[in-house]
């Protein structure tokens, strides 16, 4: 006979994981679970979906319960308010995603053109995306998606359910070099390596991401956010306890989804090691990592205090640090 010791309470069952189907995520140009400083992302309980066309399309099906305008941090480059769309999920959608009936979706960063009582399906336009003060200046417009269990307060982010994505990601090796193809006030994009598979030709998985030296696709802000993560891979996947490196330097250790070891095999989060990212020998804020559908995996270098010219060759290095950059949410 097994069970809890006499007099001890049974442990609470783990929260169910909501798994986004691959055909839902495939409607977006990019996605990331860990590229954010906010607690829900750090714990693997939210996902950001990047539409690429400034239209906030619904990743869920159900009935809009509530629409609310919320305040956000005051940033000179961003709107001073954001918006929350709460959707009561259809039972059919819940069944596909492994969510309990009655689960509620929380959607942020979309200016709502829907109202309570409206029925939405996957792919419906909810409204235009908005750049709010919750964003870092280098962050592209996206749809933030999280889930609350039945009977929980849908307006609160804390207590959200774990989120997984049923879309394998191709790991792409990178030697740390590239040419600037895009420049913005707080970041540049380098022309990264071309992937083996192609979403356009139908060969290989839809998404690809930069890989660690061990061949594990990486997710998150390396290492300007306290933690990052990995993607479920085509090929090598990380498990809790694995040490990961990039460009010859150890960058962190894989741990369980939200800290519970082994709770999501193949896509754990990562506790970053104390390292700095250098671009042409000078320290920059970090690298912004995500899974993308493009045939060439571009490298986003976050560098608000460093200017690079279009066409300039850049070599990125990762080095150990006694004082790594860590950005908060204030």
TrEMBL record:
Superkingdom field: Archaea
Region described as Disordered: 1-22
Compositionally skewed regions (Low complexity) per UniProt: 1-10
Domain DUF8155: 19-164, 170-318
Annotated protein name in UniProt: Peptidase M23 domain-containing protein
Lineage: Archaea, Methanobacteriati, Methanobacteriota, Stenosarchaea group, Halobacteria
